[in-house]
Write a structure and sequence with these properties.
It contains 13 helices and 17 strands. It has helices at residues 8-16, 19-31, 48-58, 76-84, 111-122, 138-142, 158-166, 180-193, 195-198, 269-274, 290-293, 305-320, 347-361, and strands at 42-44, 67-69, 104-107, 127-130, 201-202, 206-212, 228-234, 237-243, 245-248, 278-280, 297-301, 325-329, 366-368, 375-378, 384-387, 392-395, 397-400.
Length: 416
């Protein structure tokens, strides 16, 4: 018996399962008489952008016609998978009660959470959006200085646009590249301010866990007839909110991957982070955080586009503060994004990769390959020593651009 709570764990399942697993789950549902999506084929999307193109092909159809196995693309792309085709889940037992009067809880008031609420309203369901931060798009606000490499047309939800347009909102140019601040100020805040949505959004409501009301994970008798209990920390204290179903749209921004090569923090990493020597996410190197980085030796760890964004900003900063040193450490023998500059599906993303490759050719960045972090220690002079299997790197600051992971702990009492 599987709890029919649409949680991020199911996105993880869908994104890591093989084609055979997806088809096996579908057959199992059919054999037990469970309702399953009207899927006739399983498509493989090895890259996030191809996934978006697939999703767009199904927009406007009354029901999805395919299950999409999104490979290893979780986090950012999995959220867009949710946005465009929210019904392509497998292995979900249907509710046996409508639980009239109870809302569908949506965790997170970012782009995905607000879009989910708009779709629920369009279908005549009541959403209850619970946002841990003090504003909608709280995570987006932390990288508002960053310009996206995906244009507006990939970042606007159709149901949300319908609500905004009806209120007189003018959409941005589809091909324009927004910053995080643009996404927040020109889209998310106006959307959340609409009367249709504003009444359903609760700020400073942090979801701690989700369970079935009155029973633990091992209890089966009458389980499907019980509503969910969503425990929250809110300004008025801790309490449980009832829900008929829910969607975890909290994202991954608050859970960065560690530097440690084994998937856990390296020895000494927590202490260095607490001392402010390790920075995660996308620091505003040329703006609010400039004084912190100028004239320092900075080690960037990570092989993705977030690392590239910080590296380009650091090299630009060195033009203003020549004492700034830039070191880049990656696990691979060759950074994988260096070959993605030409014919990139997203031109701005291609320019980012090409710009980084050009800086490396000119020797503007010190590149260390095959580096797998095992420990981090603070030096007497105030810097850090980051130790790998073969090398020891010294830096004043470390930018950990190692990606993010979902927090699946809130669903530990659910059967997923």
């Amino acid at each position: 018996m599987i709890d029919s709570w649409l949680l991020k764990a199911e996105v993880k399942l869908a994104s890591s399962a093989t084609r055979a697993r997806l088809l096996r789950e579908r057959r199992r549902c059919q054999q037990r008489g469970w309702k399953v999506p009207a899927a006739k084929e399983v498509l493989r999307a090895p890259q996030g952008y191809e996934l978006l193109l697939m999703c767009q092909r199904f927009l406007g159809r009354p029901a999805p016609t395919a299950l999409i196995d999104v490979g290893a693309n979780t986090g950012y792309w999995a959220e867009r998978f949710l946005r465009y085709i929210p019904a392509t889940y497998v292995g979900i037992e249907p509710d046996r009660t409508t639980r009239p009067g109870l809302p569908v809880v949506v965790i997170g008031a970012g782009p995905t959470g607000l879009a989910t609420a708009a779709h629920l309203l369009h279908r005549g369901l009541e959403p209850l959006v619970l946002e841990a931060g003090s504003q909608v798009g709280a995570s987006v606000a932390e990288w508002r200085h960053v310009r996206l490499f995906s244009p507006w047309r990939f970042n606007l939800d159709p149901a949300s646009v319908r609500l905004l347009t009806a209120a007189g909102w003018r959409p941005p140019e589809p091909g324009e590249l927004p910053t995080g601040g643009d996404l927040l100020d020109r889209y998310l805040r106006p959307l959340a301010a609409l009367p249709a949505l504003a009444a359903h959004v609760r700020l400073r409501h942090r979801v701690v866990t989700v369970t079935r009301r009155g029973v633990d994970k091992l209890s089966s008798a009458g389980r499907q007839e019980l509503p969910f209990a969503v425990r929250v920390h809110a300004p008025g204290g801790e309490r449980d909110l009832p829900a008929r179903a829910g969607v975890d749209a909290s994202g991954t921004w608050g859970q960065p991957n560690p530097l440690g090569a084994a998937g856990i923090p390296a020895v000494g990493e927590p202490q260095a982070s607490a001392a402010g020597k390790i920075v995660t996410g996308l620091p505003d190197i040329l703006g609010a955080d400039r004084a912190r980085f100028a004239g320092r030796r900075v080690l960037v760890v990570g092989a993705g586009y977030s690392a590239a964004t910080s590296l380009l900003a650091l090299v630009e900063l060195r033009g203003q503060a020549p004492a700034t040193e830039v070191v880049w450490a990656v696990r691979a023998a060759v950074p994988r994004l260096l070959g993605k500059g030409e014919d990139n599906e997203l031109p701005a993303r291609g320019r980012l990769a090409a710009g980084l490759a050009s800086l490396l050719r000119r020797g503007e960045i010190e590149l260390v390959t095959g580096f797998r972090t095992t420990s981090v220690s603070e030096l007497a002079g105030g810097g850090l020593e980051v130790v790998g299997a073969r090398e020891r790197l010294k830096a004043d600051l470390v930018v950990a651009a190692t990606g993010f992971r979902p927090d699946l702990g809130i669903g530990r009492e659910l059967r997923l």
